[in-house]
Amino acid sequence: MITITRRMALATIAQLAAAASLAACGMSSEEEALAPDLGDTDLETLASIAYDIMPYEAVRPELYVRAAEAILANDRALAEKGLARLREVIGGKRWMALDEAEQVAALESVQGSDFFAYMRSTTINTLFVDPAVWAMVGYGGSAVEHGGYINRGFDEIDWLPAGGE
Amino acid sequence: MPASFALDDGSVVVIIGSGAGGGTLSRELTAKGIKVVCLEAGPRLDISDIVNDTGEMFAKLTWLDERVGVGLPPDGQPTWTCKTVGGTTAHWTANCPRLRTFELTALSTYGQLPDCSLADWPVSLSELEPWYDKAERHLGVTGTNGLPRLPGSANFKVMEAGARNIGYTDIDTYNMAINAVQRDGRPACQQMGFCSSGCAINAKWMGLFQDIPVAEATDYFDLRPECMAIEIVTDADGKATGVKYLDRDGTLHEQKARIVCVAGNVVETARILLNSKTERFPDGLANRSDQVGRNYMRHVMTQIFGLMPGVVNMFKGTQTAGVIRDEVKHDPARGFSGGFQFHLLGLDANYIANNLVAGGWGRDYAALVEKYDRLAGVIVTGEDPPQASNRITLDPVRRDRYGLPVPVVTYRNHPNTEAMLAYAERRGRQMYESLGATQVFTIQKFGATHNMGVARMGDDPKTSVTNRWGQTHEIPNLFVSDGSLFPTSGCANPTLTIISLMMRQADYLGQQMESGAI
């Protein structure tokens, strides 16, 4: 089941990345249908990697694409260098065609690199500023407009053993 | 009314920095009718600029100019200090413990440690006490002067229950410069969290809204935000005559001065002293002892998070309102010198996702971060023994956007520190495991918020930079006015001591000016 949802998430990521790439080069999807298939785009590969770094089925796939866009916008050279290294690791295969275990194994081989550290921090910093992600992990976000937590359970806890005061 | 003094008015005191050190000094001196020009590198924010968003406030408040970290501190951000009017009182979490006698007499109490430069403070606790009293009244510190303490959050209750399980007893919601009740024109704390982002309701004491307006109301205060001091000017007699600075447009000015006080929060204090070289002072100002920049201390710190059996929601509530004081003592039987405190720590989800496990990623890590609401947190703050090799230096090549040499922060843990960390982490782990924590995490690598040392005070000019008042031994009208003065760090959060020392320094400065000594 997990594999299927993961595949669905990655398929959505690929579609969104393709749409974003087309928009970036001013092509419509009709024009794109006539263009030759050049394999995975950097954007969809990076978005897929972002997903493998912090995989949440409940997170909107466009956040992973947004992380990939941020990486390309902020340090394209580092991204291209990292992708080139990954392509060496997987030898001729298409990244998007790999299964989860193969992708994770490839990423493990580069996890000490600057590229990976940058991918990781950008992915986390894109996901964890999103209120939906905050809600998923139970973080409340801005509290001032709600009068803080003084009347909203700042001291509530239901599992501590009784004792003391 | 805010004053405006002429650049060639050599009768003013120039204070570099407007934080806990410079802000306090500004308020105290202007209250005596002394003219002050305060140069602050950062902008002046308004209460409406303060929002509950850690990322946005980090960008607004933090000193982000290039700094190099060598050793433990993260490169690029070896320190987490502020660049804004009010300085680090914008992001401090307002914990106000006092130093104790064993800490002020570290050398006598512990004996010298290998490769360390432990010293006794030239000021005793009984000398400091009236100033601590005054500072606590000024800040409205909870648990002092009859002021009630803050209520404890769920995160606090977990800490307290675990601490009692392992035998600790000296536990409460701490002495905080955060109103538990409405006071001094400021409201009571609403347990929002976000203390380190600046308090959006002004329940936390911040110099920006307290000392700065009071100083401005005197007619003696000329605050110049976004003005970066780059050099202290001295004359042929070796006296300070003024300060060169760049305004927000990058235009160079020189403000003449009767007295110069440096309050740049350690890194900038060391940098401007080292960078103000002249023929007479070839190694920088007040540095004949070669002590400027040395003995940099940042407290022994480790964050400890327990993954608890139920929901804690550590983000709900005052971030650090809780303390365990049982380990604040010198007890060599523990295998190290000096003491440490545990204090409460609640942090946001983005920080946890980035840092809970260094470099963590993948399915298991994502699932762990999803349990954010079950984390409880404390931070260890321990005495950091001064080492001459832990220091601030200037990069020989790199220049920042002001054209200044980039500061290099070199810091490595002493074996005493490693022993203290191992002990404290073991106790922290026991504390959370006693309540059924399934995993316990520690985080050590983060930018230093407590910066101390680098211009230590002392009675001997050969081994210290300033006298017991913060007046440099070499240049009588040049003062160091921040945590740089600390000969040792103790384990108390430094701000209350900085504010107390600056109230005391202001008193001395006033007397010296009145008598014409400087």
Spell out the blueprint of helices and strands.
The complex is a heterodimer of chains A (165) and B (518).
Chain A: H1 2-25, H2 29-34, H3 42-53, H4 61-90, H5 100-108, H6 114-127, H7 131-137
Helix pairs in contact in A: 1-3, 1-4, 3-4, 4-6
Chain B: E1 13-16, H1 20-31, E2 36-39, H2 54-61, E3 68-71, H3 101-104, H4 106-110, H5 125-139, H6 154-165, E4 171-172, H7 211-216, E5 221-224, E6 228-234, E7 240-246, E8 252-256, E9 259-262, H8 267-275, E10 300-307, E11 323-324, E12 340-344, H9 349-355, H10 362-369, E13 375-382, E14 391-399, E15 405-411, H11 415-433, E16 439-443, E17 478-480, H12 495-514
Parallel strand pairs in B: 1-2, 1-9, 2-5, 3-15, 9-17
Antiparallel strand pairs in B: 4-11, 6-7, 7-8, 10-13, 10-16, 11-12, 12-13, 14-15
Helix pairs in contact in B: 1-12, 5-12, 6-11
How would you describe the overall organization of this protein?
The complex is a heterodimer of chains A (about 160) and B (about 525). Chain A is mostly helical and about 160 residues long. Chain A has one domain. Chain A is about 60% helix and about 0% strand. Chain A has 7 helices and no strands. Chain A is elongated and about 60 Å long. The relative contact order of chain A is 0.12. Chain B has about 525 residues and is α/β, with parallel strands linked by helices. Chain B has one domain: FAD/NAD(P)-binding domain (3-Layer(bba) Sandwich). In chain B, the strands form 4 sheets. Chain B has a 6-stranded antiparallel beta sheet, covered by helices on one side. In chain B, strands 5-2-1-9-17 form a 5-stranded parallel beta sheet. A 3-stranded mixed beta sheet of chain B has the order 3-15-14. The mean pLDDT of chain B is about 95. The interface between A and B is large, with 43 and 48 residues.
The proportion of residues in beta strands of chain A is under 5%
**How would you state the average pLDDT of chain B, rounded?**
97
Largest contact between chains: A-B, 43 and 48 residues
- Total E-strand runs of chain B: 17
Oligomerization status of the protein chains: heterodimer
* Residue windows where pLDDT falls under 50 for at least 5 positions of chain B: none
Would you report the number of β strands of chain A? 0
